[in-house]
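yo

u said u wanted the structure for the complex thing, so here. seqs first:
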Amino acid sequence: MNNAADHLSFDMALERYKEVKSKPFRINESDTLLQDYHPDYAADQTTNLNIGVNKGEHCVTELASILQADSPFDSKSICSEEFVDVLVIGGGGAGCVAALSAAETGSNVLIATKLKLGDSNTVMAEGGIQSVVNSEDSIQQHFTDTIQSSYFRAEKEVTAKMIQNGPESIRWLIELGMKFDTDDDGNLLVRKGGGATFSRVVYFKDYTGLELMRVLRSALSQSSISVLNHTPVVELLSDNGRCTGAVLLDLESRTLKIIRAKSVILATGGSGRVHINNFPTSNHIGATADGLSLAYRLGAKLRELDSFQYHPTGIIYPESLAGTLVTEGLRSAGACLLNAQGERFVDELKSRDIVSAAIIRECENGRGVELSSTVKGVWLDTPELEKNKPGILKNQFPKLMSLAKNNIINPTKDPILVYPTLHYQNGGICIDVNGESTVPGLYSTGEVSGGVHGKNRLMGNALLEVISLGRVTGKHAAITAKDVDYGEVGFSHLDKWRSERQQLCKDNNEVAPKLFPTYFNFRY
Amino acid sequence: VVELIINGKTISAKPQISVIQALIESGVSDVLNAGCLNGVCGSCSVFVKYAESSGIETELGCQLMVKEGMQVSFVPNFLSVSEKYQSKPKQAALEIPAALSELFPQVDSCRQCGGCTNSCPKGIDVEHFIKLVIATDYNRADELMESCVMCDLCESACPEKIQSQHLGVYLRRSLVGLKPMPSNLLNSINRIKSQEINTDL
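structre next:
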């Protein structure tokens, strides 16, 4: 084995890549790969929570400080009050799907979103949506694949519901006018995701999320749903243990507004911009765990707070693209991963945690391409894929190829230098089969919710969760709203929280939701 | 180190980073202009003038590398909306031309000035898209707009205020509505009606 001093520099490794004609295959998957190299398993990264429903449980350190933070809320500055049946917090894929489904029941729905409608992780999703379409496949097999890849940690009933409703949800999207790639007979084409038994990821080029988001935005603009852009939630309201609405902050006027709602749906997305373990992230700028901190203060139970997905192929060169994702669809189509010596070192279609751990192993053992003493990576061999399937990059991966337009990278000529990037929050708010949290009146859907991915998510199961459970959650929240009255505007949960903090979290000076990453210098 | 001007402020940046990374690292981040940082949300549109040229170009700030002497100004995104088309696209699809002239009447006034094409940060030939729409070549028109990120720059560049970005989505939704539902999907929906998942693995 080489030692760390033998790392090849970018130029030397590129030279080496071009020399090696036939790529040797050095598969080396030991039983302890994850324990040795996956960031989730590093013992010093977690701490125990001191307050709240999950008190005493493991949580990654960066997230623990946000979950146990104080609220920015100060009742003196409230300007206005508004009433709706269903308040949806978050304007990404899950929020839009839930809002549309809630509105289908005739409810009065409002979406409040921190960025603008559609700025989200959904819009970037490239690979596709995992759902059973072909006859050799079955929902049982999809379920088994998901549970096994989750290390048997996924919530079985909720996962089953998500998978059962998958094909019907794809039909719902097509009826809304979403385009998918099809064969000459009009049948949906499928990709095979890592860790899946059959090919069942439906897609639109590498623009699946963009196309989904464009259609959802368009459908929303045709509906009766109101949208408040640049208006994050800073605190939730409670009345006798029930969630009764939220306090919104208008980022432009800097005023607070109260929304009183019969049902509240949290669809605030993930937490990549917290940069757990100092990893770069593929996430959009607003992924700062806002929903988790809001729900936790109100008493909602969370789960798998020590489990995150590091997507194997984040671009690391040039730096302007740091964190940008290259879709698993490329590996699915046959692109290989190569170390600095030009050797393959892992079955590229193993699940994401294993492929990521293998890349980290190569880089920690002197077989990575060295950009600097701290930044190393491996090659994703796109030129070889193009050679074997001429035209595939241009036809199936236009989003990737648009980077060639500005001469940033040239995937047909040079391999892409990649390293795992913080991609997805596997856990989140506990939900039941209707998307309801442990707090009555508070629902959650999309990445902020937890349960269907356990400790590792399959490609295409995030968008499946967004559309399948998003619909279930929106519908159920709206139906519940028909049977309840508006509650009081209460903050008793906050008084309790603050007194617990004073006793047990003296050293925590954080205020959350963070709304923006620390390098944004955002101040309340 | 590269020196450039962003929103009127002189900023020193590392080479090889994007304009929006330079803005963030300089500590004057504009929270309302940052989104996915991945070239698909359309939030970080910029005007850019390079040191060596006199013209102004439009780009996405997250896809534009810093360059010595470059002047950059971020453009606010007001989220343009289209006329409401109440019916589902499927119902309107059979009469696409009539629906188009009702919903997007400005199309017929296209002056072929090239403003839309020049403004598109994704490099889409938007003017050609409009030509194809006028020629009722809808499938080719649709394909041209597949990479549109709804940044609204084409609409703001158009003297006739043609909403090409919304027209693209409308057209795609209509064309999807015209096609039969994929039969492998319908078969799958029928098949799983009688299937139950055994959760006891």
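The mean pLDDT of chain B is 90. Chain B touches chain A through 67 residues (CB under 8 Å).
cya
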